[in-house]
Amino acid sequence: MSEGLREKHKRRTRRRIADVATGLFMERGFDRVTVAEVAEAAEVSVNTVYNYFPAKEDLVLPPDQASPRRLAEIVRERPPGRSAAQAVLDRLREEVERRDRTLGLTEGFGPFFAMMRGAPTLVARLEELGHHMNDELAAVLAEETGAAPEDPLPRVVAAQISGYHSLIFGEIGRRVTAGERPGTIAKAVTELLDAIEEMLGAPMLGYAVREGRPCSE
């Protein structure tokens, strides 16, 4: 079904507000810009901004992109024969290979990342996102393995997966801040993923393997 004019207008308005906000935040800092100033610069009302972005932090970390369901969804979508831990490793490798925006492997991400790290409310949002991501993943693992409520394994495995997922984002952030190019960062992160996979071992890589015959390579 083709996109209607109303939907196109809403999408363009949302994009314009986000772009204007990002420009102001990069220029002056997240905490020094008000939603009213974003609205004025984007030539919309304050209510319109809040209709698209219920919280100021959503202008930088929109829920549809910075989702607490990320890890849970990766695990739910894994093909037969792949474990939960392997599925997340596979997805991270794919995203690194294509220089995905999700990881920040794009030119010009350094100043944007610095802006985020300089705003306490955004740092708090990222930390909260990490906790929710871990909880959502643990719930999926418990459901898929049929674990009893008192079984600690789903939470242990979720914590391990969330840990190396955070490690990858932290490594990218560190290297971006140091001014490294996306290609250089991608190579280093790929080597880090290799090291993580080597150290995980059979118990982690064999936990919650999806039933069914794996697809042929």
From TrEMBL:
Domain of life (superkingdom): Bacteria
DNA-binding region ranges: 34-53
Keyword list, A-Z: DNA-binding, Transcription, Transcription regulation
Pfam families, sorted: TetR_N
Domain HTH tetR-type, first and last residues per copy: 11-71
Record PROSITE patterns: HTH_TETR_2
Gene3D superfamilies, A to Z: Homeodomain-like (1.10.10.60), Tetracycline Repressor, domain 2 (1.10.357.10)
GO MF annotations, alphabetized: DNA-binding transcription factor activity; transcription cis-regulatory region binding
Classification via InterPro entries: Homeodomain-like_sf (IPR009057), HTH-type_TetR-like_transc_reg (IPR050109), HTH_TetR (IPR001647)
Name of the protein in question: TetR/AcrR family transcriptional regulator
Organism phylogeny: Bacteria, Bacillati, Actinomycetota, Actinomycetes, Kitasatosporales
